[in-house]
Amino acid sequence: MVWPLFRYIMMAALRDRLILSIVGLMLVVVSLSIFFGATVITEQDQFVRSFAAFGVRLFGVVVLVLFVVTYIRRSFEGRDVDYLLSRPIGRIRFILTHAAGFSFLAFLAAGFLGGVVAFLQMHNINAGLLSWWLSIGLEFIIMANVAMFFAFVMTSQTVCLIMVFAFYLLSRLIGEILGILQKGGQTGVMSLLSKIMEMISIFIPRLDLMGQTKWLLYGVPETLSLPFIMGQGIVFLLVVIGASVLDMHRRQF
Amino acid sequence: MKLARSSSSFWLHLVFGGLLILNFMLWYQGRKIKDPWDNVPPSPSPATIATFGLGDEEISYRMSGYFLQNLGNVGGRYESLKKYDYALLEKWFFTAGALDDRANFIPVLAAYYFGAVDGEPEKIKHVVTYLADQGQKPYPQKWRWLAHAVYLARYQEKNLPRALELAHILAGLKTDTAPWARQMPAFIQMQMGNKEASYEIMMHMLASEADKLHPNEVNFMRDYICKRTLSPSDAAKNPLCQDIP
Predict the structure, then answer these.
(1) What ipTM score was computed for the predicted complex, to two decimals?
(2) Which of B107, B103, B102 is nearest to B128 (CA)?
(3) What are the distances in angstroms from CA A33 to CA A57, A63, A128?
(4) For B88-115, what is each residue's pLDDT tens digit?
(5) B interface with A, Cβ–Cβ below 8 Å
(6) Is it the case that residue B64 has pLDDT exceeding 90?
């Protein structure tokens, strides 16, 4: 039953034109990058690559999150979840198959979208590009699974999308926020809020450390440990999948 | 019933038509209204600029540069560089530039775009300050920005003491600078009327590195010493000035 469910998710992605959207996204981002790159007075190549890398990363996450959330909420509303769970598949396998399906789609999206940036940088394929590609792959997989978690937990599609995008924003900015907190100087209520924010940051992956466009130009800085960055991402991914499994395990249908 | 419906339909169309006309009138009145230009906005902190690219410093750097490039030239507006607030621009150069020390996008903008303003020494001094800082970054060819700062201080800011101070920093850099960059203090001393100082600098350079320089460079230096720093009578007595090709 695992394989048919996996295929069912892939068919849903095809039916929702996910792949077509990604191809369209590639064309739009590349066109805009070349257009804007042509209008800067110097370092046009660097501008094009940075802009394209930023664009595919941002909109790749948006497309994946929109698909995962709308797919799951539609499955609940159309009673597809009830039907699927009545088949010989346990709840844990049900969640894990979904996690695998969405992760596979995220992997494909990262492959296509990262490939566009690699194409723009064909004359300079380096370790920085490969590290960037690998880390946005992990970022896409994390965000697809975070979207899955929120979509299973929340009943409102709108609130769910807002929560996922707010989570993504926080994950991208958490480095800056932690930097401000660690600088100190907060007093009174601000000090208390700082502590609360620091506690929240335990459950926020450091996406700010991943997929930095400067890696494409200068490589990964020696002071940054890529295995650590990827490691914390993988552990957070397992935490999110674990939370989804727990939620499904306790859920009353 | 039918009559009432026809009457309400008439009024609905009338109101809608009226709204369309009102919309057209407002459009006609407002089509030439432009938002006034607010000059250079205050520069945010580096942390705030980094949030423009959702924490990605490189794209924040590129977008900040793009913003500076098009600051007064958007929406069919073309503002003269003389109207720009260069003190605020300098802050933008430093805060945005801090996101990527190695790139040359913002230094190019500062030197060749904002530095092209003519007859405004008060404005140019802000560009000079930024370029002088960029020129001391430890990356290849960055010294050229310091050389450009010397040029701007000398010819645009017309501040020879400042130009000399920067030229000395340039000459003392431990990077692979060009000979003409190391000769800059001599040129500026000469313009300040200090022929002896200019002579000393050139002679010192010849003594210490003539064997490493291209013969054309050595000939130029001899020519400069003999024809610019020395009087004809002194040159006639100086052995260096004999047999200049």
Answers:
(1) 0.83
(2) B107
(3) 13, 19, 20
(4) 999 999 999 999 999 999 999 999 999 9
(5) 47, 50-51, 53-59, 62, 65-66, 69, 100, 102-105, 108-109, 112-113
(6) yes
